[in-house]
Amino acid sequence: MTASFKELEQAGWTAKADAYDAHFAAITRQAIGPVLDTLSEIAGHRVLDVCCGTGDLATAALARGASVIGIDFAATMVEIARRKVRGASFACGDAEALPFSDGAFDAAVCAFGIWHLAEPDRAVFEAARVLRPGGTYTFTTWLPPQQGWDMFDLLIAAVEAHGSMDVDLPPAPPPFRFADASEARRALAVCGFDEVDVRTATALWTGTSGEQVLDMIYKAIVRAPMLIEAQPLRAREPIRNDIRDGAERLRRDGKIVMRWPYLMASARRAKGHP
Hints:
By secondary structure, the protein is an alpha/beta fold. The protein has a domain at 5-144 and 171-204 and 261-269: Rossmann fold. The protein has helices at residues 5-15, 17-23, 25-28, 32-37, 56-63, 75-84, 120-130, 151-162, 181-190, 210-220, 223-229, 233-248, and strands at residues 46-50, 67-72, 89-92, 105-111, 131-142, 193-207, 251-252, 255-269. Strands 1, 2, 3, 4, 5, 6, 7 and 8 form an 8-stranded mixed beta sheet that branches. The mean pLDDT is 95.
C-alpha cells in the first residue's frame, strides 16, 4: 500500500532530525525572534510550541521567561529537543489533535509546521481550542516560488528542464495556501481568531558550494528530494547538476547566499468564540 502524505512527512522528519539540526535549522532559527515578538510579554505565560522540531524556539521562549511545552510528530526531533533544552517539556503528538485541555495555554506558535500537515485547518482550530480567550497564535510558512526565492526557483527550473513536476507522489494539501495573506486571514477567522496581522520576511542560507546546497536538500528536507527521485533515472543527475550550477551563480564575495522568504501570521483567539 502506498504511504500517505502524512506518513511520508512523519517518516522523513523522523529519519532526518539530526541532519535538520545540522543543515537546515540555521535558516528557521532566523524567524524565532520575530515570532516571539508577536507574543509580546510572555514571562510567566504558558506557551505551546507546535511542530517544535529540535527545540530552538522553545529555548528562546524559556529565555524570555515563558513556561514552554513542545510537541512534534517525529520522535527523533523530540529526543533531540529533550537533550538540548533544559526547563521545557516535550512530547510526541499530532498538531491536528493536540493532547491538551481547552484554554490550557496563553500563547501558541507553529514555526514552519503548517507546511508539513495533512489537515492544516484542523491544526489551526486545535491551536484556537487550547488557547485561553485572548491568547495569541502565530505561524510561519514559506512563500511560493518566484516570490524572492532562490532554492525553490533553482529546483523547479532544474526539474522542468529535465523532467516534470507532475510525478507520482501521494496527494498533498496545496503547499502555499497559507502563504496567501487573504487565505491566512480567512482560515484564522474561521477557526475563531481575530486581530490578525500578516507580514513577510526573508531568511538567508549561506554556504560554500553547490554541493553543499544538494546536501541540504537531500539530508535536511523531505519533499524536495522525493520530487527529484520520482523523476526518470536519466533525468536525476542532470537535475542535480543544474542545482549545483545554479547555486554557484548565487556566489557573492566567496559565499553562496540563498533567500528563503516566508509569511508570518499572528492573531488573538476571539474572546467570544466557543
